[in-house]
Design a protein that fits this description.
Layout (H helix, E strand, L loop, with lengths): L9 H6 L3 H10 L11 H8 L2 H9 L3 H11 L7 H9 L9 H21 L3 E2 L6 E2 L1 H7 L15 H4 L5 H10 L8 H13 L1 H9 L3 H11 L4 E3 L6 H8 L4 E2 L4 E3 L2 H7 L17 E4 L2 H25 L15 H11 L3 H13 L3 E3 L7 E3 L1 H7 L3 H14 L29 H13 L5 E3 L1 H11 L19 H16 L2 E2 L2 E2 L1 H8 L2 H8 L11 E3 L3 E4 L5 H10 L1 E4 L4 E4 L2 H9 L4 H11 L6 H13 L4 E3 L3 E4 L3 H9 L8 E5 L2 E4 L3 H10 L5 E2 L34 H18 L7 H6 L7 H14 L3 E6 L5 E12 L2 E6 L4 E6 L3 E6 L2 H4 L1
Parallel strand pairs: 16-20
Antiparallel strand pairs: 1-2, 3-5, 4-5, 6-9, 7-8, 10-11, 12-13, 13-15, 14-15, 16-17, 17-19, 18-19, 21-22, 21-25, 22-23, 23-24
């Protein structure tokens, strides 16, 4: 094909592209690479399939999509000027700001057309623009699927089944010369609707009610239902062809008439320019960074509390998978968060690989071994780990509490929470945040408007406008969830993007951690003990101190300072963990900046004196005590009846309950028993004993095929080019075979002789090859060596040296001289 010859097909248009342009197509539409097309013709065919075109349309911005929609209702092929007129109008309505809008459309249309061409949705020169057939079918109007433009069929399409007599009646009523030729009649009627002067004269004679009917149909949908006895205004429109029958009960406003009423515009509101992102507030960037760092530290504390909550084995997994509503409520109470927020933290810990199923018969959630490694990291590295996991996760916590397509409730950690669009939307939202000056918080509504322009919802109303309400737009809901989750996680502070988050997006986790480190307070090694049996931690504590204090006391409140309360139960918990009273006194004296209050010392000594006075073991269970009076008290207490105790010896009671239930039952009665082993030693209860086997974080579910890298793109383009050369090769012996695309056929002796001759002369040949899976292909090879039933050759199709069994070669032919030079 000469360089000045216009392409006749999409395949010819693709064949005329350069390698860089083909690589751009494959990068924009990676589904075309699976598998790599054999040649350009197969690439063009695949680019025109319905699934691929739908995916390409979904990735267009609003104006590129509006351009494609305008081409779908334009003649095929359409000149550039016709397309421009459909987007700008004919200028005769003189609407406010129309000139400015027209200038913006004129400036933006070349870019939109370039996008459509690059994605192989439009091909041809500017004077002959073709929208690929599948896209035209998807965007063209029909009674079942109205066009996004709100336009109906043309006069020719709407009158295709109409009788010549009815056409003659319409022409006569409309004041047009009669004709018995249906083609001429249709052309005459269409000419009336496209003639602005004659059309204006016709509408001047229309009843006011008829004009009201046209006003309701002009911007779509263009279809209307007829009553058995149409009103006079409707009848007036039918008689003049302004409403044409689609069925016995349905009429349609023809496209030419609608375009006249719209002043030539395909869309009510073309949007050539992306909506501007408006700032809602401007704050001090340093204050934003400090607020984000503080919230990030709170996020770390919340995740640590969650891991601690499930340290000894978390809640059971539902049979259908996920976490029950009751367990979510328990976690929300423990984390002091609303249930949706608690669900977010649980999902985040799961996505970061810190929580998983233990895989046991009685399957439960528990921390993973990776959680211990995470807890040992500096605070800034723990934060970047969570933030990176959140950015890449396809699990969408905002869906929890809703229903799936079958009406089933979506539960926390359930299997139906993956949404492949989530990572791309999150990153795009943060990128838009980053496009504003530091410390600037964007207005959420303008943020949503910008996102909808960049990736409009295909379920649009007439005129290209998005359907109202956020519920129908998953991407908008994900964007709103992203704004809230980013604030919870400390990505943003006071509504603006923090500098550490900018570094995470642009430079990576290491740089983000370096930015965050100076903003995180240093852990403290002390607390302030008070006389009311509380301890105040004026800031974050060192991990060993925090872990020990969480065992010895209960957290009463959190905030800038954490308040711990000492109770008999908390002190007993520390003694159960193997601490002695002297150890607890020494610990408090070492880590308190204030003297240890006397009430706290008395509390520890009192609980320690009674701790272990009773011993619990397995009988099913037993209680033993050197003080017979204590055992007499237990037997006499009515609250011990459920334990079904009986005396075995003066100092031993046996119980029907298991040791754990017996232990808890006696504690509820006010005693402080200690469990003992079979050897009679006191058992020490240690926290954090339960971990899952090593688990990897859940793999994000990708949105379609992954974007190929530059190496794969270059190899794919070479393979397609070489395959196209093979498919279009002109060879000496069987010229008809190449044009029909079938494989060459020669006898084994002829095949062997031809490839041997090519190896000696260094020439290339054209072969048909069937691989071990039975897949047939055409290849151009340059044989190097032929021996042992194999031919080793440079394969121009794959751009590498390969070895082929001769018995799998269907035939061989020499290339024409002009192709071997």
């Amino acid at each position: 094909m000469g360089t000045t010859t216009p392409p006749r097909t999409l395949a010819e248009a693709l064949r005329a592209r350069g390698d860089e342009s083909l690589a751009g197509l494959l990068r924009a539409r990676p589904d075309l690479l699976n598998p790599v097309p054999n040649d350009i013709t197969q690439l063009a065919t695949r680019a025109g399939t319905r699934a691929s075109v739908v995916r390409a349309l979904e990735h267009l911005d609003r104006f590129a999509l509006q351009t494609a929609e305008a081409l779908a209702v334009a003649p095929d092929p359409a000149p550039y000027d016709t397309l421009l007129a459909l987007l700008t109008g004919d200028g005769l309505d003189d609407g406010a700001g129309r000139d400015d809008a027209g200038a913006a459309i004129t400036a933006a249309l070349p870019t939109a057309l370039t996008t459509l061409r690059e994605q192989a949705l439009v091909w041809g020169e500017d004077q002959r623009l073709h929208l690929v057939r599948t896209a035209r079918e998807l965007l063209a109007p029909s009674p079942q699927h109205p066009s996004p433009t709100g336009l109906g069929p043309t006069v020719a399409e709407a009158t295709a089944g109409m009788s010549p007599g009815r056409l003659q009646e319409i022409l006569t009523t409309a004041g047009l010369p009669g004709t018995h030729d249906p083609v001429s009649a249709v052309a005459s009627l269409a000419g009336l609707f496209t003639d602005r002067t004659r059309m204006a004269e016709l509408l001047d004679t229309a009843p006011v009610e008829a004009l009201s009917v046209l006003d309701r149909l002009v911007w779509g949908p263009p279809y209307g239902e007829l009553t058995p006895n149409p009103a006079p205004p409707v009848q007036w429109l039918r008689d003049r062809g302004l409403l044409l029958p689609v069925s016995t009960r349905t009429v349609v406003l023809p496209r030419e008439a609608a375009l006249h009423l719209r002043a030539g515009r395909a869309h009510r509101v073309p949007e050539p320019v992306a909506p501007e992102l408006v700032a809602a507030a401007e704050r001090d960037p340093q204050a934003v960074d400090r607020a984000a760092a503080g919230q990030g530290f709170m996020a770390l504390s919340t995740v640590e509390d969650l891991l601690k909550l499930w340290n000894d084995g978390g809640p059971a997994i539902l049979r259908a998978g996920g976490l029950s509503v009751r367990e979510l409520k328990r976690a929300a109470v423990a984390l002091d968060s609303p249930e949706p927020v608690a669900a977010f933290w649980i999902e985040l810990a799961y996505a970061a690989g810190l929580l998983a199923s233990d895989g046991e018969t009685d399957e439960r959630y528990a921390p993973t071994p990776a959680s211990d490694e995470w807890l040992d990291l500096p605070a800034q590295d723990r934060w970047t780990h969570l933030a990176t996991a959140w950015l890449a996760a396809t699990r969408t916590a905002g869906l929890i509490g809703g229903q799936d397509s079958k009406g089933r409730a979506l539960s926390t950690l359930g299997s139906d929470l993956d949404r492949s669009a989530a990572p791309e939307v999150r990153r795009r939202v943060l990128t838009l945040f980053a496009s504003l000056p530091a410390g600037t918080a964007p207005d959420p509504q303008t943020l949503l408007a910008r996102l909808r322009w960049e990736r409009p919802v295909r379920t649009q109303g007439p005129g290209g406008q998005a359907a109202p309400g956020d519920a129908s737009d998953l991407r908008s809901r994900i964007a709103l969830w992203t704004v809230n989750e980013a604030e919870l996680l400390g990505i943003t502070g006071r509504g603006a993007l923090s500098s550490q988050a900018r570094a995470l997006l642009d430079e990576g986790p290491a740089q983000a951690a370096a930015r965050l480190a100076p903003l995180i307070p240093e852990p403290l090694d002390h607390v302030l003990l008070q006389a009311d049996l509380t301890a105040v931690a004026p800031g974050p504590l060192e991990r060993p101190l925090a872990e020990m204090l969480s065992v010895l006391a209960d957290v009463e409140s959190k905030g800038g300072a954490t308040v711990y309360r000492f109770t008999p139960g908390s002190v007993r918990r520390a003694l159960d963990a193997g601490q002695a009273a002297t150890d607890l006194h020494a610990f408090l004296a070492t880590h308190s900046r204030t003297p240890v209050p006397q009430p706290l010392s008395y509390l520890i000594d009192d609980v320690a004196r009674r701790h272990g006075h009773l011993r619990i073991g397995a009988a099913s269970a037993y209680v033993r005590c050197d003080d017979e009076a204590v055992l007499n008290e237990i037997l006499a207490d009515k609250r011990s009846a459920p334990l079904r105790l009986r005396r075995l010896a003066p100092t031993v009671l046996a119980a029907q309950a298991d040791p754990g239930s017996l232990l808890e039952g006696l504690r509820e009665m006010g005693y402080a028993p200690a469990a003992e082993s079979a050897e009679g030693d006191v058992l020490i209860t240690r926290a954090g004993a339960r971990r899952t086997p090593p688990r990897t974080p859940p793999v994000p579910v990708p949105e379609g095929p992954p974007v190929p890298d530059a190496t794969l793109l270059a190899a794919a383009v070479r393979a397609v080019r070489a395959g196209d050369t093979a498919a279009r090769a002109v060879h000496k012996d069987a010229p008809d075979t190449a044009t029909t695309g079938s494989l060459p056929r020669t006898t084994p002796a002829e095949t062997l002789a031809t490839v041997q001759a090519a190896a000696m002369t260094g020439s290339a040949v054209w072969i048909g090859y069937v691989n071990a899976d039975g897949a047939a292909s055409q290849r151009v090879i340059a044989p190097v060596k032929v021996e042992g039933g194999f031919v080793t050759a440079y394969d121009h199709t794959a751009d590498e040296v390969r070895t082929y069994p001769l018995h799998r070669i269907t035939g061989v032919a020499e290339l024409a001289d002009e192709q071997t030079n």
